[in-house]
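Problem statement: downstream parser choked on a complex file, so we are re-checking the raw output for the zinc ion run. The parser issue turned out to be on our end (a line-ending mismatch), but while we're here, posting the original submission so the record is complete.
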Amino acid sequence: MYRLGAASPYCESRPFVIDDLTLEGPGPGEVLVEIKGAGLCHSDLSVVDGSRPRPLPIVLGHEASGIVRESGAGVSEFTPGDHVVFSWVPVCGRCRYCAAGRGALCEPGVKANIDGTLLSGARRFADAQGRLCSHHLGVSAFSQFTVAAQESLVRIDRELPLEKAALFGCAITTGVGAVINTAQLKAGSSVAIFGLGGVGLSVVMGARAVGAYPIIAVDLVEEKLTLAREVGATHVINAGTDEPVAAIKDLAKGGADYTFESVGSGSVLRQAYDATQRGGTTITIGLPAPHRMFSVSALSIVAEERTIKGSYMGSSVPSRDIPRYIAMYQAGILPVDRLHTHTLPLAEINAGFDRLARAQAVRQLISFN
Ligand SMILES: [Zn+2]
Ligand SMILES: [Zn+2]
């Protein structure tokens, strides 16, 4: 991607250009990975439309799986042939956040992501003019090969279908992690989920896995409400025809214990707050544009003992959580396959993002075979 803010439809404006780049081999602590599966996520779309700007040119994509092909100096944990899923925050393991078990907030990891570099500060891609290209969240999944810091990788079970394993890199980790890590949801808690993309549907699955009831899913698209029922929602609300706050208060007897916002909209976050029971917790996962503000009654936080929590990458420790969620999938507890709606070649990536922007897809995977 050489420019931000392309207008839709993307199959005409073509924000993604398929180009031949030079990829420098892995430096110390880095690994060369052949990408096998790459998901199209709304956070990629936020870079495309300019609401989350990143340094250009950039090789986008942050939800991915692949096979290790080469290890740089000092890499002891990964050997060629290993199957891996990427964590889109590199987790250094040493900073104060990592030491506290909060790898999603890793200080050097977040800085490298903002700078568009690997954890070492390096950029390994260059275009035909020799210009260095930024990495996207240390992953850069929309490429046959990438170089990543070993701190961006988690080794996975080789039995798992590798293409689909990409879904554990963002959608599942973010959504199920919001339930298990951020909310620490207990069985019997009432839950409402606003927005049913890959992340919102993963919240539904996580809520089902921990025994929440009722699980109320809210969206504007009827197909997504049907899918939400299939993966664990006990009730669904089409916000285009029903007023969701009143409907949730009715179903959950005064409001849900936990509400999750995964749209990235201030007004939807306000609805989620209003649909939360007194004493309850409102969790925000979506990424609104940076200038958006959120306003609520300060008194309500005190007098109603309310909590508002942010959840970034599911408050995850990737090396602990990704293998856990994979084991839960293999045991039939998380119906991850239901998120996968399309497979496409890299050449059709612009059309894929049109489908995502129009809510005609949940998770689309690029296949490099
Ligand atoms: Zn994502
Ligand atoms: Zn760290």
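For whoever reads this later: Residues 41, 43, 62-63, 170 surround zinc ion (ligand 1) (CB under 6 Å).
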